[in-house]
Amino acid sequence: MAQSTTTKTRRIEIRITEEERDLEQAAATVNGETLSEFVRRAARREAERTLTERTRYAVDDQAAQRFLAALERPSPDGERGLRRLVERPSVLPET
User: Fold this and answer.
1) Is pTM beyond 0.70 here?
2) I need a labelling partner for 14 at 20 to 30 A (CA). Which of 24, 55, 61, 93 fits?
3) Which residue has the higher pLDDT, 24 or 7?
């Protein structure tokens, strides 16, 4: 496994059962990693998966067609709402 060149300066502590530790240690050993490397990599993968789920949506073909049709024919209420939104001052600082 490739070593990261970034210096690790932060530490977290967690409490786990003996069974969890034994399982994770066995998996780390099989992968040729330390327990710390294994847990850090697994936690990162899960964090990325969780955040990806918040930004991507999978829909079936029928739902996708309805969504695309709605984009092509926006409702008058939607257009009015967007217009009001664009006309409001931004809450973001100007750069």
Assistant:
1) no
2) 55
3) 24
